[in-house]
Amino acid sequence: MKSNFQEQENQLETSHNKTPLLLDQWKPCRGARAIIKEWLLKLRLCLGAVCGIEWYCYALLGILTAILSFLMDFSVNKLLGAHQWLYMKLEGNILLQFLCWTLYPACLCAFGSTFSNQMCPFSTGSGIPEVRTMLAGFELPHYLSLTNMFTKFLGLISTLAAGSTVFLGKVGPFVHLSTMVGAYLENLFTLIQGSKKERAATEMLVVAAAVGVASCFGAPISGVLFSVEVMCSHFAVRHYCPCFFSAACGALTFHLFTLWSGDGETVQALFKTNFPTALPFYPLEILLFALLGLLCGALSCCYLFCHRWILHVTKTNRVFIKMLTEEKGLYSALVVFFLASLTFPYSAGQYMASKYTTKQLLSSLLDSRQWSSQVYNATVQLEPLEWNSSGTSVFLSLAFFLFMKMWMLVLACTLPVPAGYFMPVFVYGAAIGRLLGEGVAYVFSTGVIFGPQWASFNPGGYALAGAAAYSGAVTHTLSPVLLAVELTGQFSHAVPILLCALVANAIARSGNRPSFYDALSISKRLPHLPSLAKASSQLPSTPLGQVLGVNSVWLQKAAGPKEVKHAISTCTEEQIPVVDTNESQILLGFVLRSELLMFLRHCLNQSLEEHLDEVCCIHPSKVLLSPQNTVEEAHSMLSLAGGQTLFVADKGRLVGHITWPKLKLIIEGLAKEI
Amino acid sequence: MKSNFQEQENQLETSHNKTPLLLDQWKPCRGARAIIKEWLLKLRLCLGAVCGIEWYCYALLGILTAILSFLMDFSVNKLLGAHQWLYMKLEGNILLQFLCWTLYPACLCAFGSTFSNQMCPFSTGSGIPEVRTMLAGFELPHYLSLTNMFTKFLGLISTLAAGSTVFLGKVGPFVHLSTMVGAYLENLFTLIQGSKKERAATEMLVVAAAVGVASCFGAPISGVLFSVEVMCSHFAVRHYCPCFFSAACGALTFHLFTLWSGDGETVQALFKTNFPTALPFYPLEILLFALLGLLCGALSCCYLFCHRWILHVTKTNRVFIKMLTEEKGLYSALVVFFLASLTFPYSAGQYMASKYTTKQLLSSLLDSRQWSSQVYNATVQLEPLEWNSSGTSVFLSLAFFLFMKMWMLVLACTLPVPAGYFMPVFVYGAAIGRLLGEGVAYVFSTGVIFGPQWASFNPGGYALAGAAAYSGAVTHTLSPVLLAVELTGQFSHAVPILLCALVANAIARSGNRPSFYDALSISKRLPHLPSLAKASSQLPSTPLGQVLGVNSVWLQKAAGPKEVKHAISTCTEEQIPVVDTNESQILLGFVLRSELLMFLRHCLNQSLEEHLDEVCCIHPSKVLLSPQNTVEEAHSMLSLAGGQTLFVADKGRLVGHITWPKLKLIIEGLAKEI
After folding, report:
1. What is the pTM of this model?
2. How far apart are CA B582 and CA B551, in angstroms?
3. Which residues pair with B591 in a beta bridge?
4. Mapping DSSP to helix (H, G, I), strand (E, B) and coil, where does residue B647 land?
5. Taking CA A279 as the corner, what is the angle to CA A274 and CA A282, rounded to the nearest 5 degrees?
């Protein structure tokens, strides 16, 4: 019994010690270990002299994520190139071309789906709902494992390599990948520094969210804004500089790798545009941008409704349930085959520019030249435009693209593969903007309204604004505005884009409807309070007293060894509350588990019947909650207290306690009520 | 006695009522009032049907501030034009020119100083330290009055009209002006909506901080980033959309007014540059940008040291104290006369481009053409460059400018006038960057290093990066990066500017030195915790028990009318704590003052000796603090609780309570210890 206590104490000491690198000397290869450890310590001292070790972690996080991002882009480009090469080689034989066009992405997605579900089922989907939940303070350990990272990375490559047929993106999973790299570096940091875990862990997650976006596109500032938006209720200002630092490292590394790989002469935007700078837009066009915002907002509501509907169907329809639980690979293959046969360039695909990859789609939509006038005036056309390759008008092509991609994207969202849902929405918004822009350009080019001086009208600006507004409305965020600016390096349109995105957001948020990620959180029953509030605004205001349950373990201050032993054996908490007497239950504070173990050893040694308060120090509990506090308030207080146990007392009497795991259970319980 | 109670109760009811517009019917002109009120109510219903009334307030805040900003720019331009016209007319007579050059700004500053100190002494200085304190939750009512707004507006016009001689800016006071407009709209909103005040007031302040920057330069995104940075510890995500909305309204209004006044054809950046877009910079230049960051960081430390020194001198030197308390107008006139005689174009001014206004200075520094090569090649020079007008090399001019403006700016900071300190620092940083850029361009133009292919080297990019990095380092912020981008509409340099600013910030923040605003806060003894932490890192961790004082008023639950009467007469708090018995002091909760008044009336009516708990409802106190909590923790909890009274209890016993006014006293007490 005694040795057992000693062992437990040793473990406690080890975990609390400040320099774990120098301890645990009972392992093999002592000599080599000691030398390595000494070198590591020296390195730590050297590095620490310049700035805190955590800053090296932030830099490393940015650099590693950017390298992952570059590697992914590189592999995806090779795989897409292979597909295009094969398709071109089969020119002349439509059947073979059809098989090549459909089976290549179907096989890739079937592989991605099967592989990721076999290796780690948590790797499918976007990952942003889970990241938001983790940022709110809850631990979801499965989502941060190295296996998950590996699986998600490979799975995402196969999804992206399926190309614009599947039409899925990279951002969401990349934010998730970045948090996994962050969690790994965080463990490394804890090992080197021996600091307390809770506080730094959240910090690393917040930084990783910013880095994810930043290294995905080389866009540091929108990364930081995304990190602010994705937070549950408050953004700590102390995370601001680390976010910027890490995001800048990530963006710089990403740009430099792109540079070294031979794309471009210098560090520049990913989708560099050539908008006219002298007169980017006429002042009256601001009204058109506001109109575009209205349009994007309305269409986003439609898309979100369809998405919620399909989420509901996949959970209630028997065929879907059976396919999505047992035959994920087959389901993916079938859905992608269906989508690909629609986008086949000799079928409906010819009317929706399906030969373009997602990147080419976006580049073509952001072109500053007017398509309609090019076609009508038959002037110099530098490269053939895919949008009117079949001879149909660009207006019909764009409208058909919008109609088809709406439901195709909703269907693609059900695929059980690692995939992002932001980029497709961004491109879709660009198409909405382009359609409006081309329409206005056509009306102006006839000279009926305003006369011929509006000749330098730029439909590309509308595409950019539409992309930011539609993606912002779908996700209920504003950072896409800055992302649009950073992706194109085009600042001249910043104010109208912001206006357009604000209008679209206002419409999408009206009526307290859930955003895209909220819908996923609700569907997955994640313990994320703001999402729950969207589903039922009453739930987060539930009083704590209703859901807390009874507190089973406490000690009175005059407790003897018997009571202490019983308390230790019945509960696993680190802090055990101490009350005045068992009758009055007035909360005095708490004792640490380790101190109780010491108390028991002391009693055994002395063979005395001593009272708890004579030996142990009773720590005062810093913040007390009452049963009238809402679950939301309890969550805020717990966030602020940084992982301590908070005790709940009613008029001085102990009622219960709140920790992160307990709060997670409570909120998961609430989520089941929806 | 009884009527007195009733009156107090009536007041309480009025102040707590939800629709104050329909009440207070004992005032004159009842008929007209009733009609107007009815119309207002109808308007409120109409407006409220589209979106919440607060959104109209945000829009109005942006629009009003932007109009103020436009009016100020307009008046300042006229006044500056008048000065230049007069100076040109006196061409040929150096003495008269000297008098015109020196007396005009001296008189303006003397007027501004006397006027603002007579009307409202709180209107001098930047205002940002006070805004930061108010954002931290403390009320500084003098700083938000309408008189202050009027005084600050006029005073700032006279300071800015003194031109580049005084070399002071507009941003800081504009953020302050914006908060005053916000506070006024907030009162209006409270009147219309009848909502609770505390929560919305902070919201309006946060939004106003963003709007201040946004409408000063038409830069919405950096406004929001500034608002995030300026917060004490946490930025509430629910303020994010209002900030963006209001900032966008402000920026758009500012741009449209500028447009209508005839400057420019469309909405575009204030200092539009024409950097080459094809190859904005060579990848290797990133190292040079990092070097520039180092340089800016080091110089900012030097500047901040000088600033702290002069703050110390003005508080200890007898002459300064006497001048700054009794003869503010004279002091301003003398200092400005001295500065102006130095910048007189026939004295030292000719070596530091003193004929330029602040705006022209910045525009000239951001020019993308190489000055040195222009001079040496004697190619087409479109407009005469002021920097080498006297025949000296631009390097000497820039170096002389940097040397002189450093101490001149430090001296100008002591002027008791409403003035911003951001813009001069921004321009100063641009000069640092330009000097480095020109130097590198000169070295490259000789072709010794790297050869002639670096001919398209752009020193303007260095000026931009230097401006962002130096101003960021001085204020310990990163939003200047985005401000630099938004001011110039130049996104191609975003990544190197960010890198440069991060390096400069890292150097400026090392060693826990206070920023420019921190130094002002400490000097003014404002209750701003993060600033205090810079002065003495121990202070914010002082345990609450040490500084709380004794709690004088409480009621036991069995208290009779006599005790209640005594409690009401001795304290002014709204919530009075109730304990179990006077001996045990176990805190049960609190009663509201209004309920105690009702209890007394009840006792008087019934002529009974009843106990408190038989009549009044004892509200549970939601969150309890302990005396071991630090002052910083108490501040966080109070921010989260949103203006409630927080009780402090030790092992269930009442120790004291914390409210915002009390915390303000405590922190001001701590500030005196420095």
Report:
1. 0.90
2. 13
3. B576
4. strand
5. 120
